Amino acid sequence: MTHRRLLAPLALLLLGACAHAAPPDAESASGPTWRRLPVGESGFTAEWPMAPRVSRPTEDGARRASFWIATAERDDLLLRVAIAEEPGGVIGDPTAAVNQLSTSLMSDQGLLAMGARPRTRFAYPGFHALGGRIDAPNGSAVTTAFIGRERIYVAVAIARRSEAAFAAANRFMESVAPDPSDALTSGPTGDDRWAEILWAPEEFSIRMPPIERDALSEAQLASRTGVKHVLEAREDGVTYRLRVYAFVREAPPLLEVAESVGVTGDTTPIHASGFPGIERRGDHGAIQRVYRTDHHVYVAEVAPAAGRPATRAAAFVDSLHLL
User: Fold this and answer.
1) Relative to the CA of 233, which of 11, 212, 216, 258 has its CA 20 to 30 Å away?
2) By C-alpha distance, which of 189, 231, 172, 192 is closest to 44?
3) Could you tell me whether strands 238-246 and 195-199 are parallel, antiparallel, or unpaired per DSSP bridges?
4) pTM over 0.70
5) Which range marks the domain in which residue 84 is found?
6) d(CA 65, CA 75)
7) In a domain, 308, yes or no
8) What is the number of structural domains in the chain?
């Protein structure tokens, strides 16, 4: 199931959920009382100047996907949050899912809001985070999105006319926080010697034994020149290797990359953090996986020595998260 299908019913669900926004809490003479509140049981929290109305419409069928929707509104301010949950892991292109989710949240707010869809990367520990903002004389719209292991979170703040509304929108957006346990880099190692490596410039994290080789070089891949970063470790006669290729311009197409690195023959389509990839398995637990994003290619490999089966091959390749 892809997020294109997963999010298809969201626009209709959102219309019902947002039509009954909770009335604002009574305000004191000095202004609203801000409180950090959760959105259902999603683990997402934010500071709200008024109590939001939270609903959880669910996709029909096998409950493969479900949603939380929160809305708080007054004359000069609209705050909305939508969270799509897919147990077992996000499937499909997560950035496309973010676009669909944010479009559904803002479809009734005109062109101003639509121009603020989250497209710009920013750093947030453990999550693929995107933001957007647009300012105009009659209002501002700000968006933030987080992509986690099993959930996609999108928050929208639209301020109209007043400086107080602009300040409230900024405070709300600065406070939004996804569920820490949903971070792409979370999870048990299963072995104290295995450490998690979070490499922000190359936008990945992975768990592996102590690194014995860490090398950078210029390299060609599928007739394009980029920078190759190799991380390599050995344990019990098994080699664990990750190659990351970074390109200033767009990375080569996935099929060309797979052919260049030898991931051919009997292969299987896969994904990591929603990004497409190809897998090839060999004897004794050997695995090769290749993934492509806009500007990076990732090749994860497990190569066992003769007579030394790679019993932890899956633990290595499955731990790769693209941020």
Assistant:
1) 258
2) 172
3) unpaired
4) no
5) 3-182
6) 33
7) yes
8) 2
